[in-house]
Amino acid sequence: MNMPGNISKTPFAGVALGIVAAYVVAVALAGAYRDSEMLDVLVSLSLPPLVLFLVYQGSGKRFVFCVASLLISGLLFDLGPTLGAPRVGLGLVLMTIGSMAVPLVVDLLVIDMGRQIHVARPFARMAQVAFLLAVFPLAGWKLLDAHAIIREEDQRLVDELAAHITAQGNALVVDRLDAKTRDRALRRLAIRTSDKTYPLSDAAIESVRETRTVRKVTNAHGTQATEVTRQQEDRMRLILKLQGTGIPEDVVLFSHRGPLTISTAKVPLNKNGS
Predict the structure, then answer these.
(1) DSSP secondary structure string, 65-85?
(2) CA distance readout (Å), 191 to 11, 72, 86, 149, 228
(3) What is the pLDDT along the chain (274 residues), one digit of tens a residue?
(4) According to the 3-state scheme, what is the secondary structure of 4-68?
(5) For residue 212, what are the β-bridge partners?
(6) Which of 131, 167, 224, 261 has its CA 20 to 30 A from that of 247?
(7) Domain segments of the chain as ranges
């Protein structure tokens, strides 16, 4: 920055801004793919630059502010879980608004100070070109890395739930899930019968409190003492009703990202629900 209100005329600074923004966006896309939040992150990333593109039409600040909003949006999405901010619902709306608001607020503050932000044409052009050239290979690299991790995580998740599926009446029941496993299962998993596919997000959720007896044996001065305690745990149960069909001999439990199947497991069913 050469002086207050002027953005550096050095093209290399624009290249740096574009590449950093592209990397942050690529990380956000990979995280969204891993957590089945791709639609959310696409909305969060695309809306702020689109709004700023229309607001600053004809201004030299337009492309720089668009790239800056992508950088801010990607950072907010990447850091959201660390900061305790959910990346869905109201949290996502606030992230999107913040990504649009920051460049606008900075611009208005500079105007209130009696100055103008002047963006050199080489800086703006290089920021735009660098972002467009870098974002696709960086996103591909990060998505490939995320896919390798997803295959391992989803296979463990599928195997864990396959061990807890039983048939009860006209429904499939998945028992003994903690809250984290439940959330991942609802976002990632589905069950396929011979004639229909049922996403687990359609399942009803029940909370079950389990009481465990814990025996702890300690050695003190050559003598043994047994301490018996009772611990309560909240577990979740998913109940998926099958529509217009009887309970099949087996089902296929699979994880997916959109139409892409990641991991599968064939699960034989005990129709007695034992």
Answers:
(1) HHHHHHHHHHHHHHHTTTTT-
(2) 53, 38, 27, 22, 41
(3) 444 455 555 778 888 989 999 999 999 899 889 888 888 888 888 899 999 989 888 777 888 889 999 999 888 888 877 777 666 777 778 888 888 899 889 888 988 888 877 778 888 888 889 999 999 999 999 999 999 999 999 999 999 999 989 888 888 998 888 888 888 899 899 999 888 899 999 999 988 765 555 566 566 555 555 555 555 567 888 999 887 767 888 899 999 988 889 999 999 987 654 4
(4) CCEECCCHHHHHHHHHHHHHHHHHHHHHHHHCCCHHHHHHHHHHHHHHHHHHCCCCCCHHHHHHH
(5) 231
(6) 261
(7) 6-149, 163-268
Cα–Cα distance measured from residue 182 to residue 238, given in angstroms and rounded to the nearest whole number: 8
Q: Which two tokens stand for residue 155?
A: 């296979």
Residues 6+ apart with CB under 8 A from 30: 139, 142, 143, 145, 146
Neighbours of 154 (CB within 10 A): 22
Give the C-alpha separation, 158 to 39, whole Å.
23
Residue that the structure tokens 């992508």 belong to: 70
For residue 82, give the amino acid letter.
Answer: T
Give me the residue label for tokens 């896309």: 29
Q: Burial, 181: exposed, middle or buried (Cβ in 10 Å; 0-12, 13-18, 19+)?
A: middle
Q: What tokens appear for 203 in the block?
A: 């399942």
